[in-house]
Design a protein that fits this description.
Helix content is 0%, strand content 43%. By secondary structure, the protein is an all-beta fold.
Length: 376
């Protein structure tokens, strides 16, 4: 596993000195570390040869341990330090006078996975570029990662996800590049406790005989407060199933009830509805109109229910095309800055014929023009 952070905690530890050579003899500076592939807890040895007291630095990801080779002594020689391996890869460097030695990496075989480099105290996204970081895959393998988007209420496997295949480096480590996340939010049911996970990404990774534990990246949690309602788009609809279709050949009175519904008003505004008679042979501006007002609720909806419609059926002596609107109401509604399109509520349509004039009655037999019995 690579060392990926410069954040360090420093501690001084005495070094064990094994003198070699006489004081003043020429010594070629060197740094040796072995073994360089170990399991957690196994011992590795650091050996530094230097004509002066060396400074040894051992960095295990975010934690640095500095070994001061002087430790109260001034003679030249070989410094040997035995250390147990930790959980993470370790980088060893040394300074001999003004000369830098190393680095040498001790690869700790300990498969780990996380949203930041394993062993790092950095929060996800604050360190190197990547969505997921893994370590210590077997040599010659590749990584398979299934990424699943899960929303509250989804089945356990979420949307089924998709799979990414990744190479490993020389130490079996790998990085999944950042994953694109769709921009949307889940509206939880009322009363959802604060902190409830509403949306998350799930990462299931493996390589060779290594199966990593699932990693989850939380995208959204409940706040504990019901979200404010979101007004819908402005719509105006009408229900008038109780208004009958009437033929024009018989005079009658049409009666029925209608319901009018509106949405998309500014919350807690007032809706105004102008109702104007219209239809066949009615002036373009319509007849006398009236105005109704209705309050809106917190999501901007309103209703005008049981609108009583009473009208005399229109009669005409002229033939009228089928479906011609004979009686109607023109409904013009608004609320705040919302102006709905005008809606026409049909009360009566033509059946396709008009009232015809009575045919002439033939005169009685023998009647002559000008006589009382003559009808023309």
């Amino acid at each position: 596993m690579r060392v990926r952070s410069a954040c360090m905690v420093v501690a001084a530890v005495a070094a064990a000195w094994l003198p070699s050579g006489a004081a003043g003899a020429a010594v070629e500076p060197s740094l040796a570390v072995g073994p360089t592939e170990v399991m957690p807890g196994a011992t590795f040895t650091i050996t530094v040869t230097c004509a002066v007291a060396p400074a040894i630095s051992v960095v295990e990801t975010d934690v640095a341990r500095v070994f001061d080779g002087a430790s109260g002594t001034t003679h030249a020689g070989t410094t040997t330090v035995d250390l147990p391996a930790g959980q993470f890869d370790t980088t060893v460097t040394a300074g001999c006078g003004g000369q830098a030695l190393g680095p040498v990496v001790v690869d700790v075989d300990n498969p780990m996975v996380g949203l930041s480099p394993p062993g790092s105290d950095l929060p996800p996204g604050a360190g190197p570029e990547g969505s997921l970081f893994g370590t210590d895959c077997p040599p010659g393998t590749q990584v398979t990662v299934r990424i699943t988007n899960w929303d509250l209420g989804d089945p356990e496997d979420g949307d089924g996800g998709f799979v990414e295949t990744l190479p490993i480096d020389e130490r079996g480590d790998w990085v999944l590049p950042p994953v694109a996340v769709a921009e949307y939010a889940i509206v939880p049911p009322p009363g959802t406790p604060e902190g409830t996970v509403l949306r998350e990404l799930r990462f299931d990774a493996s390589c060779g005989d290594v199966t990593y534990p699932r990693v989850t990246q939380v995208l959204q949690t409940a706040t504990g407060e019901d979200p404010p309602p979101v007004p819908g788009p402005p719509t105006l609809s009408i229900e008038s199933a109780t208004i009958p279709r009437v033929a024009v050949t018989e005079p009658t009175t049409i009666e029925g009830l209608a319901d009018l519904y509106g949405t998309g008003c500014p919350p807690n505004a007032e809706a105004s509805i102008r109702i104007t008679p219209a239809g066949y042979a009615t002036p373009a501006e319509g007849g006398p109109s009236r105005v109704e007002t209705r309050p809106t609720d917190e999501v901007g909806t309103w209703s005008l229910t049981e609108l009583l419609v009473t009208s005399e059926a229109v009669e005409t002596l002229d033939p009228v095309a089928p479906g011609t609107i004979m009686r109607s109401l023109r409904l013009e509604a608004s609320c705040g800055d919302v102006r709905y399109p005008t809606v026409t509520m049909v009360i009566q349509r033509s059946e396709g014929h008009g009232r015809l004039p009575r045919p002439p009655v033939p005169p009685p037999a023998g009647a002559l023009p000008g006589s009382p019995d003559y009808t023309g």
